[in-house]
Amino acid sequence: MRKPELVVITGVSGAGKTVAMRAFEDLNYFTTDNLPAEMLPEYWRLMQKQNPVINAAVVIDLRSEKIFTDLSHVVQKMLNQNQDQAYQLKILFLDATDAELVARYKETRRHHPLSAGAGTLDDIKKERHLLDNIKSLATEVIDTSNFGPRELRKNILGQYGDRQAHSNLFKVQVMSFGFKYGAPLDADLVVDVRFLDNPYYDPKLRNHTGIDQDVYNYVWQSTGAEEFYQKELDLINWALPRYKTEGRSTLTIAFGCTGGQHRSVAFAHRMTQALQNNDWPVTEYHRDMQRRKDNGQQV
Fold it and tell me: What sequence ranges are listed for the domain RapZ C-terminal (predicted)?
């Protein structure tokens, strides 16, 4: 049985601690930012009282310099008290070269937390000196000089997430919508199927939806429907592993027709079934399917 884990995220300012914390949050760690060092033991005692016990990740850095100076002593004491290894205490130290840190501060136009007018490079050197003790206790040091946010997130997911948990991070949502109600703002891929024959113009089908068998059959008998679907399916099957490798947690694929009741619903429904058959974690959502036609406008 895997022991509960407390990860202390620390390191030089600008090295990526916020990105790291969000990655741990995606791994279902309970995350806390800017925790005073002296509160760490009590914080962890509270976490261990949860049932089941949860993993936690906390960011402790130099935003409060006076409190931070106690961190190495606090961590060493916790290590000494954990001789029976009832839990795993890990110190993740994020670092980067001075040149890269200076470049990041210039890019973001933010001041170093120790800024006192001496210049960013001098502030970084002062911070490194203050961090020497806690860095010596680190269980892992990651140099993020050549990492963007995506690469750092991917590194942490690989280091701290077991295979099953990492796999479960990526989810696909297939949805339908009507363009007349606006395209979904959160869609990653938008597919327009308005070129297909519209069941709206058949009075027998007008008030049905793409889930209903008669409408579903009508859509797939449309000229080009099957060929277009197969091409989209091939593209999506090719792209999904690459989106997952990129480090995405969610991908939303949206099929749109005029009103989101007929053609887009049939496409989204069939695509969902195909992706489920290929073992992708997928959900199906029909945003506008239940809307009623407005003043005789086509749906």
Answer: 171-290
Per-residue pLDDT tens digits for 217-260? 999 999 999 999 999 999 999 999 988 877 677 899 999 999 99
The reply, when asked if residue 17 is annotated as ligand binding, is: yes
Distance of CA 77 to the CA centre of its chain: 34
CA distance 127 to 63: 11
Structural domain containing residue 10: 5-167
Regarding whether 41 and 122 lie in a shared domain, the answer is yes
Residue 14 in marked binding region: yes
Position 99 in a domain: yes
264 is annotated as contributing to ligand binding? no
Three-class DSSP category at 194 = coil
| 231 marked ligand binding residue | no
With b for 16 or more beta-carbon neighbours within 10 A and e for fewer, the 117-129 pattern comes to eeebeebbebbee
> How far is 190 from 177, CA to CA, in rounded Å?
10
Query: Does the pLDDT of residue 292 top 80, yes or no?
Result: no
Amino acid present at 290: Q
CB atoms inside a 10 Å sphere around CB 280:
19
- What SS3 state is found at 143? strand
Same domain for 25 and 49? Answer: yes
* Largest Cα span, the chain: 78
Q: Which residues does residue 95 pair with via DSSP β-bridges, in sequence order?
A: 143
115 annotated to a ligand binding site? no
